[in-house]
Amino acid sequence: MEKATSNRNPADRLPPGQTLTDKFPVLSYGPTPRFDPARWDFRVVGLVEKELRFNYEQFRGLPQSRQISDFHCVTTWSRFDNLWEGVKVTDLAKMASPLPQARYVVIHCDGGYTTNLPIEEFLDDDVMLAHRHDGRDLEPDHGWPLRLVVPKLYAWKSAKWVRAIEFCDRDRRGFWEVRGYHNHADPWREERYSFQEESDE
Length: 201
Known about the structure:
By secondary structure, this protein is α+β, with helices and mostly antiparallel strands. The protein contains five helices and eleven strands. The protein is globular, with a radius of gyration of 16 Å.
């Protein structure tokens, strides 16, 4: 499948400390979860006017979007022009209506993985829950049947095997954030590790 590409200069798209690759390396902690469509569900919970729950068929029936974005891993590789297909989180938020006191989200995934985001970055227009990559269903090791895609942050924020979005009034660090990785994860500022947070203040 031929992909559209950005007209931006590649040098302007590669964050500091990163190396460009055409490959899509697999990096995960623990085994790849097994997917059972008969038992799988997805939820939106927490500080919302309407909590949501979808089975697999219902979720795949939601309005679909496509986008092209770059992908930056904290392990120093970047991959340009990824074509993602799935559901924009702004569309889900319209259905759930987050309450005014909701300032953060926690992403809950199979395998016990979590990650956290400020709500304004989670609701950015280029953030989506994707089930396809470059014209194919996601590989299980890349998050099938559903992964979050947050292009502006390092890829550990783009959590795999997502099962729930929780809207919260306070920040709660996720799996890697409590294990020494930066709470924000901006690749353009090389926010890789938590010890850097003191110098950010």
